[in-house]
Amino acid sequence: MVGKINKLINISEINQYLYCSRRLYYLKFYDTCGNNYELKEGKLKHKRSSTRGKWVKNIYLESKSLGIKGKIDVLEEEDFPVPIERKRAEKASYYKNDEYQLAAYGMLLEDNIEERIPYGYIYLYSDDSRYKINIDEDLKNKVNHIIKEIRNMRIDNIPYYVSNLNKCKKCSTRKYCMPKESKILGEKS
Ligand code: SF4
User: Fold this and answer.
1) Which of the ends of the chain has fewer CB neighbours closer than 10 A, N or C?
2) Which of 28, 173, 175, 178 has most ligand 1 atoms within 8 Å of CB, for mutation?
3) Average pLDDT over every residue of 58-84
4) Which residues line the pocket of ligand 1, CB cutoff 6 A?
5) Using CA atoms, how far apart are residues 161 and 110, in angstroms rounded to an integer?
C-alpha cells in the first residue's frame, strides 16, 4: 500500500510515538534529523558485541516475526541477560512509554535467544536510580498493539498534534508541524 510502513520498526520509535504520534510521522516520512540508526548486526544468539565484566553494551538485534529492530543499551548477566534502558535526561522519574520501550527490548531479546526475559531495568542518570520492570503478557500485548499502530501509519494520514502543547517546546519537528498555526487553521487535536 502506498506510503505505508513495511520495514522493521525501530524500538526507539515506540517512545517517539507515545510522546507524540505526529512527531513520529514527521521523523518517518519527512526529511528531518530523525533518530534512526543503521542496523549494524543482524541476528544474534548468545553473541556479544562487547563485554566488560558482567556487562554487555550496544547489542543490535532484529526480529522479523515481531516486526522490530533495536539497539539494547546494556545487558546485565543474571540467570539470564537482563536488558537495561538508561535514561540520560535530567528527569526525576520514568514514564509509561519508557516501560513499553524496555519491554520491546526484552521481547526482541527473547525472540533472538529463545529464553524467557521476565524483567529488565530502567536506569535514571539524574539520581542514579534503577527500577525493575516486569515484562509480563499484559505489557507485551500493549507493545504489540503500539507496533501495529505504528505499522499502520500512512503518509497521507497525518496524526493530530499533541494535546499537551508543552511537549512541543523542545520538539525538533516543530517547524514541520507548526502546532499553533495548525490550531488557528482549525485542525483539531
Ligand atoms: S510540535 Fe508538538 S504536536 Fe507537533 S510534532 Fe512536535 S510534539 Fe507533536
Assistant:
1) N
2) 173
3) 92
4) 20, 22-23, 26, 161-162, 167-168, 171, 173-174, 177, 179
5) 35
